[in-house]
Amino acid sequence: MARQNPISASRRPGYFLKLGSEPVAFGKHILARSGANLTLQHRLFVNDPWELIAEAIHRALPKGKTRDLAHSFRRQAEDYFRTATIGRELAVRPVLLYYAFLNLSKAYALAKGRVSLAGTAYHGLSAVPKPRAVLSSLIRFDIRKKPAVFEELLHELDGNPGIVKSGLSLGKLLPQILPGHRLWCYAANQAERFLAVERFEVLHSHEKKEVWLNLFVHRNDLGHIGVSPAKALANTQLSDFEVTTEISNVEWVCFQQQTPTSYAADSSQALAVIISGTRNKIWETVRISSPYRKPYIYCCPSTEHRARLPQMLSIYLLMFFLGSVTRYSPGYFEDLFETKYGPFFDTFIAESPMQYLYLMASEILGREVSKPAII
User: Fold this and answer.
1) Is the pTM of this model over 0.85?
2) What are 109-167's pLDDT values in tens digits?
3) How many domains does the chain have?
4) Which residue from 41, 112, 181, 249 has the fewest beta carbons nearer than 10 Å?
5) All residues at 6 or more sequence positions from 14 whose CB lies less than 8 Å from its CB, including other chains
6) 256 and 21 Cβ atoms separated by less than 8 Å
7) Residue 267 lies in a domain
């Protein structure tokens, strides 16, 4: 059993893990499975991921009705997405983008074997906007009608199933949105919650047959959000990590995995377990320059841990909410943009769609997909 985050612990000696002759650079999609074997794979660069998504769906499913349906959802998603990017009316874009996300999510779920979505499916969501109280506006989960797309997506992305038992307020959803986070801080008069991870180390003990992960943050960043290293670990739910001593550079704080992951013969199997355990604890932004993905950890109060979502689902839910507002309460949509949260919503609509597209492409392929730098 993991210890309860002590104030400090010694750094564990180890070597940088290599698979074959190549050092491991940590990421969610760095491993490829071929039968029983796992090997390293590198990111793919593409300006427009839609054709790559189509190829991955075609490869994932055998010829037949399910594959055809997945491609139909994918084509609808692409058309909704492209139409949203050229539309002039801001209020129309959330509706189009939500339906793009919805159909792309259905295609993803089918490609992963969730065939219940091949028939009639339901959103599983409803919105209750409150014009005079933005943060108390609710998203409700209705899973009585099956299959509910949101619930299926939550399951596939390893989210907390308990979240659907009660409504989710915008006050607990908005701080989970990475693009525009500082605009949320400004509007809500709150400290930042995202800590940039500046470096990962995947370390290895040959003798003990153990692998573990270290991650590094700037000490100044912790001071900026007003939390100690131990409090940051508690708030980020990195329960199997500890703060280490014996770091030569005082500008850094190292969080070390307390309990290394053991393996019998193949260290890649231990790495796969570590990646699975941190999957929803590392947020990423897709960038067009090296390192192409910028990782973060989400440092939220313990009272909001139950409301924590996988990164993509926080984008999905907020786009659903804004789309519902434009359809059913169009006057309220204009009111939203006249509040202090207006710049945040504007940035979200502008920046999140492409982030969602590349993150979802990576999930569908099981391999990191990034946008190349333009030279």
Assistant:
1) yes
2) 999 999 889 889 999 999 988 767 888 999 999 878 889 999 999 999 999 999 999 99
3) 2
4) 249
5) 203, 204, 205, 210, 212
6) no
7) yes
